[in-house]
Amino acid sequence: MGNCYSATKSPAEIAPENVKPLPVVKLYGPQNSFATTHIRLAILYKPVTLDFVPSDIHQNPTLIYKSDVVSGSVEDILLYLDSKFPDPPVALTNSTASSIWGWSGEATPTVVWVVVLQHRSITWHFERIVKWAEDLEARGGKAKGDPSMGSPRMEMKKFGKSYSHLLQVMLEHAQMEETVLFQILESADRGLCKSANEEHGSHLPIMNGIKEQIKTIGVMNPGSPEYQETLSYLVSRLKLLRDKCNDHFEKEEKELLPLMEATELSKPQQEKVLKQALEAMHETHSNLFRFFMDGLRPHDAMHYFDLVKRHCDNVRVSLMLHMMVDYEVA
User: Fold this and answer.
1) Looking at the whole model, is its pTM more than 0.70?
2) Where does 126-273 show beta strands of DSSP type E?
3) pLDDT in tens, 132-185
4) Residue 86 region, left (φ>0) first, then alpha (ψ -120 to 50), else beta?
5) 33 and 57 in contact (C-beta within 8 Å)?
6) Which bin fits 150, alpha (ψ -120 to 50), beta or left (φ > 0)?
7) 40 φ/ψ angles, rounded to the nearest 5 degrees
């Protein structure tokens, strides 16, 4: 991306000679089928080219690869894909939910995994934002050379939009913990979550301050000494917030989340809590779902989606799926 080439060059001259085309898998199934769209989502993570053929004749999704024809449940087809294209895995197995800090197990409430996976996505996005800010600082207000980024001011707008997305996910995550998770722990031992709540409160002014600082940089003269100085300060604030969040997440996962097992929630109670946790994050599970999922490794993304599909209504899940799949097609 960003490289210019002559219009007189043929595709053969542009493409590297040693690049092999990806294997093609063909998928038949109803276009608006929940199962079909789920499989299309999984295939996004595989090193293959998908040839999707909408078909109402096939009641169950049918996958064709070479001479193999596989039809059945979503799980059957995902397991087949993993057998042919092992990296990265997309089918959920007992090993998918690997232990957290060595303590999670079968008795761990499912909502704990929602929290941990959200931590992972936020952490990934924070690292990306910090690296982007460092790159902006190193260039000192000069254009990146990538047409998709545009001018320095255009790039700063894109940067601000990305940070705003991250900020919204973080705010919803903190609110979900305070109104759902911490309430359960506090009812068992009052004061248990006091420190975590205080940290949420101390992070908020920094988070909002960074947002305002990005707006200020966006109207400054790129390359000026003031611009460079303000950008350097922004980088330091982002790193400070990143480190605080990482420490906060680690403390939660080592000290608070293990205690969820001791609350001895019944299965129905666990289901109710999980549903409340997912519903508390409306923007994350609607307009920002694609953004959120981009921060997860493939098997974590499929694990999270499996949690969502089991506890959100079908209409919302269908919209979330199409948001992912249609984005790729577009």
Assistant:
1) yes
2) none
3) 999 999 988 787 777 888 899 999 999 999 999 999 999 999 999 999 999 999
4) alpha
5) no
6) left
7) -60, -40
